[in-house]
Structures are given as structure tokens and as C-alpha cells.
Amino acid sequence: MEAVVRTTSFQHYLDQLYARFLDVRDGDVANYIPELAHVDADAFGMALVTVDGHVYQAGDSRTPFSIQSISKAFTYGIALEDQGPARVAEKIDVEPSGEAFNSISLEPKTGRPRNPMINAGAIVATSLVNGEDAAARLERILAKFEHYAGRPLGINPAIYESERSTGHRNRAIAHLLRNYEILEGDPEEPLDAYFRQCAIEVTARDLALMGATLANDGVNPITAVRALPSPLVPNVLAVMATCGMYDYSGNWIFQVGMPAKSGVGGGVVAVLPGQFGLAVYSPRLDAKGNSVRGIAVCESVSRDFGMHML
Ligand code: DON
């Protein structure tokens, strides 16, 4: 496999894949966050970054879009680093829920979210990032994401504002978590940091490099900066492998066989440990909130190069 990825013929392969799926119009952009409905539905970009820092790209690989749920995997890593896995486990389980990303999937007695990839678990993970207040926590999240992406990142203010003013379901989830004392203090604070974290803008190239950093044991393969302590990398990849694609996670690991994470902004990132990060941007989503062409591209790469891990 390595020999294939290292040759320029992989660039040719990616160009062909781009051409093959360019005219696909299946799925719809997310519109429950009103501002997301304004993106170019037909944008299509992809990038693959290897653990030795080679970058392959096709299409709109440098078009910015909001990271949305993909942020959950990386913020979970920060929570693990700041609190330690044992304390995080008291607050967030790692069991696939088999339910939609916005499900209120809490353990009946304790109120502990089933996993950090559903919104409930992600809001708790954000609350576990070190920092005195929401602003400090957000600053830490942004700085860490920048270590993964290898460049300064920013927040799309219109998308943040759009979700903040319409995110009643997430607000309800946060208050429910406060009722169970899974969240401590004012639940609006981690909720606000979570909304901002979801509005961080990345490109497919950024996401592929973020994935390649996980593939490279937590070290950015281009900048050589460590983004995540080595012992925590398998923890993050494990929740991506089991819960990263919501109620499609079982089918995903069956078909594609790589840890991955999707977002309603249209991004998806897949990680082959020790090899590469692969990212796709295409905002048309299927009924489960996953990018239609994102799934198609990842399935093709996995099948054509025999990259199913299992
Ligand atoms: O909390 C939300 O609903 C969004 N900020 C993120 C959801 C998301 O990306 C789910 N992905 N498929």
C-alpha cells in the first residue's frame, strides 16, 4: 500500500475519483442550522496526507467550511489529556448508541451520555477542557486544533450565531445534563463553547492533516508538533471507529474499516493508523447527517487499495 501512496499515480487516482463523483447530486445540505443552508451545496474537495507529510488534493480542497461534529473527536482528546481517562469516563461512556447525533442518549440513572460523539457527550467533553471560563476553554480548543491543522484557524461568526440562536435542542440537552450534575455550574457556558467549537472553519486539506496527525501517533507530520499524547491516540480512534458516523457507524466500519468522523457541515475525515488521514468536503448529506460523496470517496479508497483495517 505504501508504495502506491508514495507514487504520483495516487494523485492520478484521486483526480479520477473526483471526476467520477463530481456530478453526484444526491442528498441535501443541513438546514436545521439556518446559516448552513447558504453554503455551496455542490462544493466537492478531497485531500489525503500521509504520515510522512505527502499531501494529495483534488477539487475544492482549500474551501473553508465549519468543522461541526468532527470537532467532537479532537475535543474529546483534549478532555482526556486535561482530566485523565478515568475522570472523563465518570462523565462520558464509550458505548455506541446506535442513535442519531442529536439523540438524548443518556444512561437512565446517572445521566451519563453514551459516548462523546453524540451532542450530549460532546457538550460534556467541551466542559472538561481546562480553562476558567468558556472563553479560556475555547482558546485552548482552538490552539489544540491549530496544532493538528498546522495553521491558524478561526470561527465563522455567522454560523456560530445561527446555531446559538436556534439550538434549542442542544440547550435542552445541556440543561438536562446539568440536572444530572454531569455538567457543573452554568450549562450555558460549555454550550456556548460547544457552539463556537462547531463553527471553527477548516478545509479538506486541514482535516486530512488533522487525521494524519492521529495516524502519526498524535504528531503533526508536517510541523512535527505533538497535538495529542501518544497513549491517548488509541482512545480517540476507538470512539471514532465505534461511534464516529452515528447510526451508520456499524455499516461504516463494515464497509470502509477505518476510524472516521463526519459533520453536518459536509466534512468527513478517515484515519488509517500508521498510514494517512483522508478528508472529503461535500455538503450534501444523507438522512443520517453524513456526507453522501464523503462516504462514496472513502468507500472507494478503502476498496481500491485494500485499506480495510480489519
Ligand atoms: O450540535 C449540532 O447539532 C451541530 N453543531 C453539529 C452536529 C453534527 O455535525 C452532526 N454531524 N453529522
Automatic annotation (TrEMBL):
It catalyses: L-glutamine + H2O = L-glutamate + NH4(+). GO terms for molecular function: glutaminase activity. Keywords: Acetylation, Hydrolase. The keyword Hydrolase applies. Its EC number is 3.5.1.2. The keyword Hydrolase applies. GO terms for biological process: glutamate biosynthetic process; L-glutamine catabolic process. Substrate binds at residues 69, 119, 163, 170, 194, 246, 264. It comes from the Bacteria. Homotetramer. Belongs to the glutaminase family. This is Glutaminase. The chain holds residues 1 to 310 of 617 of the full protein.
